[in-house]
Amino acid sequence: MRTVQDIIDTKPRASNFIRSDKLVIEALNYLNAVNLSYLIVMDDGVFKGIFSERDYTRNLALKGRSSATTTVGEIMTADLPKVVLADSVEHCMNEMTTRKTRYLLAYDGNKFVGVITIHDLLRQVIASKEDVFDRALTKKLIDNDESSERIY
Fold it and tell me: What angle do CA 2, 53, 32 make, to 5 degrees?
């Protein structure tokens, strides 16, 4: 069984940090530079939240606010679900599904250690597809699908 610890161990050390007092336009430029969908909001070494493309869209663009005058702290997400290092990948999938989120906050006790993304979980599933997908059942489903008539 793979765990949050396994995911954290395979990820590069996070470097996508931004302060909550930075302007959203700066955060957008930084997102573009690092080619990620989120930034970790930290103030003086203390985790504050996540700034994501979704935060920009829902909390700024759709509300007619300006990225040149709004700070990251005003629109970031601060209430994401938390997981611990011993939690399973399956537990993470359930959390993301039931809480309708793309990010989980990983903690070792009270210490923030990283972000688990939906992409991290998909990589785990693909890497261990033999453990996730029944090969014979998958083949049968594919064969049945290919032989059935498609209606569009």
Answer: 95
Percent of the chain at pLDDT exceeding 70: 84
Q: What gap in Å lies between CA 92 and CA 118, rounded to an integer?
A: 9
One-letter amino acid for residue 44 of the chain: D
Kindly state the tokens that stand for 65: 């606010």
> Rounded to whole angstroms, how far apart are CA atoms 152 and 149?
10
Helices (H) and strands (E) in the chain, counts: 8, 6
Bridge partners for 108 per DSSP: 111
Query: How far does Cα 151 stand from its chain's mean position?
Result: 36
What is the pTM assigned to this prediction? 0.79
**Domains in the chain, start-ordered, CATH in brackets?**
4-147 (3.10.580.10)
Phi/psi for 75 (5° steps) reads -125, 0
pLDDT at position 124, please? 86
CB 24 within 8 A of CB 71: yes
